[in-house]
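Following up on my earlier thread - several people asked me to post the actual chain instead of describing it. Fair enough. Here it is, all 224 residues.
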Amino acid sequence: MPLFEGEVLLKERLDYINEEIEKAAAVSGRSNKDVCLIAISKYAAIESMQELYNLGHRDFGEGKLQDLLPKIKVMPQAVKWHFIGRLQSNKVKKVCEQSSFIHSIDRLELAEKLSSASSCPKLFLEVNISHEVSKAGLTIKEWESHFDHILNLNLPIIGLMTMAPKNATHDEARLVFGKLKECQNHWIKLGLNLPYLSMGMSQDYRAAIMEGATHVRIGSALFK
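Reply from S.P.:
Thanks for posting it. Predicted structure:
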């Protein structure tokens, strides 16, 4: 995001990001309507979240249950909540009750736990494309070894999620995101219905959209 002079209004930041989303989507032959902007409100004040809601935005993301619950109480019911953090097994029930989407299914045990939940949000499998030890998620081969079991769980899995290395260049990020797109296409052929890709954050959402992202998770570039 460029350096603006003086105070920048939230609406200006939102408009700028939406313009950048539209430009990046055009590279992959799509429109901005094909990309869901998830406002990550980790460090955002409630007032800023409410302002964004009043501007027409409905998709918000949180990574911790203890941060999600108090915000749910004060934000309108029309908000669609995306849980993006590492999900502990003992918090599955509450997260399922409060979220529309979970983007961080990073292990088989968690998928099994979700299969026994009375109601389950739509899910993204987290894939560790870059094989970084610091990142959660299974590798492509690890997930593939569990395919039959995952299919038998009958979970509402709708897509895949990944993150590029923190200091990756634009081209390096595109390479990681492109590999997830290839993975999506291959797994669809193997029988998984995976229409969506959750990838791209404030520093690399343009690269992610160019490679086919349908959901981008943007926090710091939006909430300054």
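The longest helix spans residues 170-189. That should answer part of your original question.
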